[in-house]
Every structure is written in structure tokens, then in C-alpha cells.
Amino acid sequence: MASISSRRLAKELTEIKLEGCPVGIKLVKADDLETWWFTIEVMGDSLYQGEAFTLQFRFDSSYPISAPAVQFVVTDGRQAPIHPHVYSNGHICASILGNEWSPVLSVVAVCVTLQSMLGSCKKKERPVDNDRYVRHAPENPKKTRFHYDDDTV
């Protein structure tokens, strides 16, 4: 019997393959139900115009009850975006990946939210505690307890 996680991921992947993704979001690789890769590009006028970034989603057996581990990764010469909520190791401080996660959110919804987060950014800079965080960060961003207090960038 398939788990809730594998059924949900298979459904989302089928929808992505049949319906496609929103403009600026592209599924790059999803060979299994454990790790998926997307590129996201901010559309329209923004600080990131013309830039594309790679996102990695890692799913465990508790998805969609708990959030996937999502981070920007360096691949094909791409870096993590310079953004006040994105650490240089690619970890993302976003409440929807933490305490505001909801099982109704989908992988595509997370991509759209991160695309919007980048699109509304007013200043390219790293989080103030970037160096300290990166030195001590766990490999899995889900093991970090971020403090969400700034939704103005």
C-alpha cells in the first residue's frame, strides 16, 4: 500500500507534467519521490531580472503533513540569490517552510511564493547573521528553528 506521502507526490508530479508550471518556474528533475529540482526566474521588473536560480526539494515520509526541505543550490554555475532571507548556503528563512507550513500547500505553491519573495525584494543583501549561521548550520534546513519577524523585504 502506498503511503500518503508517495500518493500526494505522485499526484503533484502528474499535475506538473500534464499542466506545466507557472511562468518562470520549470521542473528540471524529478526521478523519484525523494528529491526534485526546479529553476525559478523572477518575471517582470525586479532586482533579479534575467537571473535564474535552482531550488532543491527533499521529501520525507511525513510530507505533506510536514514541509519539504527546500533550499537554493549551486548548479550549472548558479548561486543562491543574494537576499535578506536566503543564506549563502542556500537555506531559506521563510515561514511557509516552517511554522506556517500547511498540507494544502503544494510544491508549485512554494515555488511561486519564493518567486514572489524574490520579486518584491528591495535590496540585495545577505541576512545579517549569514556568516555565523552558515558556519553552524545543519545540512538539512528543516533542522533550523528560524525566527520569522521581517516580512518587509
Which term fits the overall shape?
A: globular
**What does the radius of gyration come to?**
15 Å
- In DSSP terms (H or I, runs of 4 or more residues), the helix count works out at 3
Just give the CATH class: Alpha Beta
Number of strands: 4
Order of helices and strands: HEEEEHH
Work out the count of structural domains.
1
Widest beta sheet: strand line-up: 1-2-3-4
Give the fraction of residues assigned to helices.
Answer: 10-25%
Average pLDDT reading: 90
Low-pLDDT segments? none
Classification by helices and strands: alpha+beta
Proportion of beta-strand residues: 15-25%
CATH topology: Ubiquitin Conjugating Enzyme
CATH homologous group name: Ubiquitin Conjugating Enzyme
Region (Disordered): 134-153
Domain UBC core: 4-153
Organism: Amanita muscaria (strain Koide BX008)
Protein name: UBC core domain-containing protein
Description of the molecule:
The chain is an alpha+beta fold. It has one domain (4-138): Ubiquitin Conjugating Enzyme (Roll). The chain has helices at 4-19, 107-119, 130-136; strands at residues 25-29, 35-41, 52-58, 69-73. The chain has a 4-stranded antiparallel β-sheet. The model has no long low-confidence stretch (mean pLDDT 90).
